[in-house]
Each structure stands twice: as structure tokens, then as C-alpha cells.
């Protein structure tokens, strides 16, 4: 990664952490104010590379970053407390419901946790399907995730 790209992505992360930003155009303007000349396409690639996702909080859309500085279990617990509405087993699947627009953020944190029971995840807008190796693994994962979100 070039030094300029690294500085721009760090600045982008700080802009996102400083307060809600609803659009990529708004992020472009903020970065321009910091001396970075960027296009919407550059912002889009940078958001993907730094792991930013767009979620709905209190009825408003905005970009957020998973807390990569925290321990994996702590990050999982924080995201689950803030964004998970329900966790239910369904055969060898676990179904998680979130507020609209939040499933991707929860899915990213789940994938980063590398839990051994998880074969894969599929995220929609407000629903996540987690495939487990067995029905027993899905039940155990359900209990583990419920405990993490309590």
C-alpha cells in the first residue's frame, strides 16, 4: 500500500469514527477538507478495504467500522448487543435477525471471529443465515451467541 493511500484510509477511518456520515459524497467532502482529493470510486474502494459498512441506526443510514482494536470475543459481544434482535436455530442453521441494514456488519464480525462451528454465512439486509456442520453444532452456537449478546 502506498503511503498516500495509507494516510487517506487512516483519515477516512477517523472521519467515520468522529460521527455519522450518511453518504460517500459527504465522506469525499470531509476528506477534501483534510487535503485529500478523491473520487467517489476511490472512497468506495477505501471503504471496502478498511471494512466500513453502512448501517441504519435510529432510522438514519451511516457508515461504521467494526472495532478492530478490541479482542475478537469482545468485538463480537459489543456488536451483538448493539445490532442483534434474535438468534434462533433452524436445523443445522442459525438465523440471526438485525435492524434493517445491519446484517452485513454482524456478518463481518462473525466471519472474523472464526468460530469452529461455522461453515459459512449469508447476509441479507436484516437477516443472517449461518450454516453449521450439524444440528448439534447449530444449537451450541445459538447458545454461545446468545450468551455473548447478553
Set down the secondary structure blueprint:
Blueprint: H1 3-18, H2 24-33, H3 40-50, E1 53-57, E2 60-64, H4 72-83, E3 86-90, E4 93-97, H5 103-113, E5 118-123, E6 127-132, H6 135-149
Helix pairs in contact: 4-5
Query: Gyration radius, to the nearest Å?
Result: 17 Å
How much helix, percentage-wise, in residues? Answer: 40-55%
State mean pLDDT (0 to 100 scale): 86
CATH fold title of the largest domain? Gyrase A, domain 2
Largest sheet, spatial ordering of strands: 3-4-6-5
Q: What would the principal axes of the Cα set say about the shape?
A: elongated
Terminal residue distance: 39 Å
Strand fraction equals: 15-25%
Q: Would you identify the CATH architecture of the largest domain?
A: 2-Layer Sandwich
Low-confidence stretches: none
CATH class assignment of the largest domain: Alpha Beta
How many H/I helices? 6
Provide the number of structural domains. Answer: 2
- The tally of beta strands, per DSSP, is 6
